[in-house]
């Protein structure tokens, strides 16, 4: 395999962000729309993509960025949008697509109905028809089926004529699933024993019911760790005085507290690491600690000779950042972390840890800090 391709494949991919529209993805012509890209804590770069092409890029702090579309119209703005987030040298996957629909008010209101009816048993098929009374029955129209609460487009049809049918086969719990929440940690994901950790679970604004139950899970456990009822868009789960056995993967969901009991998708997994039970590794830089802007440097984390742990997970950290930069699980006693096309903000102190891949999830002490310098651009 080409060495450059191998290097790129070794980079951790950040979890995909969530994109939603404020006040709605269905808006009247001339309105202002905010497309909000919410990512994990620590993300500082964001891109908005429209129909597969980059539309805008911006730097922003914390974990989200707002892209404002002014005076939208149906010709230039009614498109499919995605976003992605960046942290250090890493970029996330693109978000799920968001279709923006612009209402012009130039067509009459359609009629809607369901067959065999609006009350459907799980596992059955329902057909929803949408019909408009057009002046020109031979003209083609675009039809969209929307969620009445969030106005999220569910299905699109371009029939030949003034009406269409939307088929929802095997109606069940999955047809009522709410979009996934986001989970992040304070003060960080790699902490010393005895640290008090807060895990925050937040949900998208428009697609959520008024009051929900937030539920926190840890991979490998049969029962949820905690649950909280809240009408807010977020809640916090406290993990006081964490121990090495608290190391692991966490997720959260939220459920509608009404009789419908709708349940969200699970958040992206959050990997918590509690350090200190294994001897510390060493961290080195190749070709060196002084790097020119745009050049690559590889940070190698190596277990100490006295450690007998094989097939460990290695994690690269930057001092002052609440989130790990990269994680790898190589076959061997060391891992290489590439920093590609470094910039001035990549300068700083780095450390690394290694941990067992299975219970009891022992984790090393952090390595001694390694400082990386990025030289100034000539002429500045």
- Stated plainly, the CATH topology of the largest domain is called Immunoglobulin-like
Class from secondary-structure proportions: mainly beta
Q: Termini separation (Å)?
A: 39 Å
Largest sheet: 5 strands, antiparallel
**Number of DSSP strand runs:** 31
* Approximate helicity band: under 10%
Report the top-level CATH class of the largest domain: Mainly Beta
CATH architecture of the largest domain: Sandwich
CATH superfamily of the largest domain: Immunoglobulins
Query: Any idea what the radius of gyration is?
Result: 25 Å
Q: Structurally, how many domains make up the residues?
A: 4
Q: What do the pLDDT scores average to?
A: 81
Overall morphology = globular
Question: What is the helix tally?
Answer: 1
**Unreliable residue stretches:** 1-12
Strand percentage lies at: 35-45%
Summary keywords:
Immunoglobulin-like, 1 helix, mainly beta, 2% helix, 5-stranded antiparallel sheet, disordered N terminus, globular, 5-stranded mixed sheet, 380 residues
